[in-house]
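Feature request, filed as a ticket because there's no other form

It would be nice if the structure record came with a short human-readable summary line next to the tokens. Right now we just get the raw output. Example of a typical job, pasted below so the devs can see what we mean:
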Amino acid sequence: MRLALEFERPIVELESKIEELRRLSVDDGVNIVDEVNRLETKLDRLLVQTYGKLSPWQKTQVARHPARPHTSVFISSLIEDFVPFAGDRLYGEDPAMLAGIGTFNGRPVVVMGHEKGNDTDSRVRHNFGMARPEGYRKAARLMRLADRFGLAVITFVDTAGAYPGIGAEERGQAEAIARCIETCLTIQVPLVSVVIGEGGSGGAIAIAVADRVLMLEHAVYSVISPEGCASILWRSSDEAETAANALKLTASDLEGLKIIDHVVKEPLGGAHRDPDAAIRTASEAIAAALEELDPLDGDALVAGRRDKFMKMGRHLSA
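Raw output as currently delivered:
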């Protein structure tokens, strides 16, 4: 049985029953096609009903699902001849931020993103996708490299937030994030960002101040995690669900507020059920965004990017 979120349990139980009937049919030669078809129809209906009315808190859980495709999967699927770059030329390497060069649909690009890892060892190695200052300085270094050689930049956002440890603060976490945002605002090449899972706080926006910000349908993007918000406002993380409802962190909310530019549809039941389909759809959205940006020169890109983010404050205060 696949790992199930609480609200997914009826779905997963039905999937298990279908698999059991299929094995029975193969092992015993029993013809149960009609019953399997009936259950598959019921499954599709249940998926539509469940995923058509997810609450913000449930979407947060989907965005964090361990089987959801991470940055490393997007890069391996979409970027050919990927060459990873390491280090910030100041302190060291940060495995939480993957970055390098490669080709996307035949064009050379610089690509980067937070990597959470997919098992205990890799999660610890990648620090659960929470980058340290050297990770953001590496990202800024790669963006400047892209600017120098006229390469488009693609970023994948998937982090609970920047790492808040003492060492990171001592090495200038806030300054590193600010410099990374500044670099996003000044490079004269197309910059496309995709929120693929969890977009948390400054750790996310550091690589998401882009010409086009895309967001997967069941991803979340907010100034703070629901648990963090609850611990501040209610002094208890038990109110995380209440906080999620108030934060307006879903893709549909953020598109309405003009914080993001486009919602990328996910396969029925979420990207963790069909990663390949989710990645294909995201690829099409990235390609379309780059095609829109290609005719613009460097000055127009910088001016448009800055104006876009300045308008957010004016829109929200109107």
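Something like this underneath would help us a lot:
The chain has two domains: 6-53, 60-317.
The two ends are 49 Å apart (CA to CA).
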